[in-house]
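Section: Multi-chain targets

For targets with more than one molecule, the full set of components is provided together so that the structure can be written out for the assembly as a whole rather than chain by chain. Components appear in the order listed by the source. The example entry contains two components.
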Amino acid sequence: MATENAGGGPVEYIQHHLTNLSVGEGFWTLNIDTLFFSILLGALIVFVAMRIGRGLRAETPNGLQNAAEGILEFVDEQIRDSFGSRAPKIIAPLALTILLWVWLMNFMDLIPVDLLPAIASGLGVEYLKVVPTTDLNTTLAMALFVFILTIYYSIKVKGLGGYIKMFLFHPFGKFLIPINIVMTAIDELAKPISLALRLFGNMFAGELVFLLIALLTLGATISASLLIWFPLQVVLDMAWIAFHILVITLQAFIFMVLTIVYIGMAHTLDDH
Amino acid sequence: MSISITLLAQLIAFVLMIWLVNKYLWAPLSALMEARRKKIADGLSASERGKHELKLAQERSTELLREAKDKANDIIAQANSRSNQILEEARNNAKTEAERIVAQANAEIDREVNRAKEELRAQVADVAATGAERILKREVTDKDHESAISDLIARI
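Its structure, encoded as tokens over all components, is:
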């Protein structure tokens, strides 16, 4: 599994794997690999959706349409659980996009960690980070959009006055206004940040474990110790993949559900 | 690894993805499923309605059948009574007619008898007159005449 461009020891190997292919400097850095893979996976979703859309049949749905209907119904159920029937129109496509896209981006984690970077280096690309959700930019971008939506719907439902009132009087009533402002601000800001960091952290850690497992035989030469390390690596890799299938699905699901819940909370008129 | 302009790019990509997923996956599929749901619900309610209507129609048909039977029975009974009535009437008519004919005949007979009696009486009177003439040719007295006439009258 070891690649030729990772000959400089474990630290360099891991650092190499955690470096994005990017252009620009500082804030103006554009992570090409993150964008490439997320847009590629997005295009895959749209492509499959268009294929399903072409052959839509109400009476005799085929396999792909059945699968899509199942997922759609599942998402719809989650939405109905927290909204009832008065969900805004954007919430369903938003939740569906999160579920499918995040799941696919997470799925990139299951591709052997050195496979795509090795191919890329063969093509002359030095760095490649294949899992878009291990880039904080991706998860934070989605979380920020959800955050913007929660603010929008909060103001839309409660009114601007109601929204400000929530900051002023929320946890402790009208005598502790300064504390209330701080508490509510933390409360509100914690939502997108936890949303982004949870997904990022899980995926990043998963990727790191894959890298550590790959390290077992890194730069190994043909020797007797390989008889121990190689089977161990295979077994550990399989075990972690099996576990990680659950993790990527769970994380995509959690991101979706929390999005629905946050926007749903923005719709509740509480009398605090 | 740090926050950069990539975030903005991903944000744009995310919004675009939501739009695309809505356009190509959610909107057509949910519209289809909604239409199917409605169709199934409509079909079920239509079948329910059909069943109900069938039940009503059956009830009405048995009702009609019973009414028709009743009516037929009525008509038969009416016809029977009417025929009896006609028969009775005819019988009565015949009886009265017969009585009338009999009465007429009786009257005719009576008239004939009277007429015969009148004739006879006239002839008797004639005979009496002739007899009287013949008697008178010989000897006529008032007394004889008188007694003969009264005798004749008494005998008529």
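Residues 5-155 of chain B form one domain.
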